[in-house]
Amino acid sequence: MAYAYQRRILMLFFGSLFFVLSEVQAQSIENVQVEVDGDNINVSFDLGYKSSIQEKYDIEIYSSRDNYSKPLTVKEGQLKDVPAINRRMVYVLDGMENFAEFKGEVDFQIVATMVYAPIVIDRPYQSEKYKRGSMVQVKWHGGIENETFNVDLYKDGVKMQTLDQNNEFGSYSWMMPKKQKKGNYKIAIQSEKNSLNRVLSPEFKVKARVPFIVKVLPVLAAGAAAYYVFGMQGGEPGGGGGGDVNSLPDPPALP
């Protein structure tokens, strides 16, 4: 029985094509190999990450036996939350259970679905200073397909408010109120599906705007000084004016 099955399974694989599908955000599945070992079928491949070694994937293996409608039974190998750290993945399938009633050639389909990708803040990327009423631009990447995010404001480590919800664009522009309190702030980006996927921006400082009157006073003071000097040249303070430089007394003669 086992020998007949092994002959059939060998014939089944010879000449077949192995169709590999990398699903969601295009990580790489390469160097696929399939081997028959008695009643087992060993499937191995290299799984690479897209942008971070912290990414995780769920793995499913299908075949043309049922037009790729139901995943094959896997005896050995991690299927959930698989870290994509550029390593060789090996799965052992139960050949008797998966193909006992099947005859003919078969194709395989490997589906790797991203289930976790860390959020990375792109902006602000370093400590910055903003005046009240300024626009603060926030940008980030990461997360999985169709994931949405909350944008929260923190001051001195304490959450002050939620600035935005259900954000799916990877960017947010915060128009700071003109009466925003001075201090040190951070922006937090958090996945709405996975509360553990959360990151804080670099700390930025909010400082008060220079009041208009403070800006104008030096100008007014400089104007008053110029007027005073001009007045001194035109006559004695408190006098009627109208004098000129030629009316000044001669300097004393040197001894």
From TrEMBL:
Signal peptide: 1-26
Keywords: Signal
Highest rank taxon of the organism: Bacteria
Keyword Signal tagged: yes
The protein's name in its UniProt record: Oxygen tolerance
